[in-house]
Design a protein that fits this description.
The chain has 73 residues and is mostly beta strands. The protein has a single domain, classed as SH3 type barrels (Roll), CATH 2.30.30.320. The chain contains 1 helix and 7 strands. The strands form 2 sheets. Strands 4-3-2-1-7 form a 5-stranded antiparallel β-sheet. It has a two-stranded antiparallel sheet with strand order 5-6.
């Protein structure tokens, strides 16, 4: 289960995970999140992608790493 809070993307920017929703047609779990930079837009992404690991610069890393449950806003 994903926790609400602040996460850091493997490329360095931070995002606030607002909640998990279901796609209306496929019932796929989607993460609803806000960019914590620029105009702070809202985004959705499949939960499976949010939780995945990937290779970056020859290392296996988490796409998003949990930082804190405190909101920065």
């Amino acid at each position: 289960m994903l926790k609400k809070g602040i996460y850091q993307h493997f490329k360095g920017k931070r995002y606030e995970l607002i909640g998990v929703a279901k796609h209306s047609e496929t019932l796929e779990e989607m993460v609803v999140y806000r960019a914590l930079y620029d105009n702070m837009e809202l985004w959705v992404r499949p939960a499976a992608m949010w939780e995945e690991t990937l290779e970056h610069n020859g290392e296996i890393v988490q796409r998003f790493t949990f930082i804190t449950d405190k909101s920065c806003i």
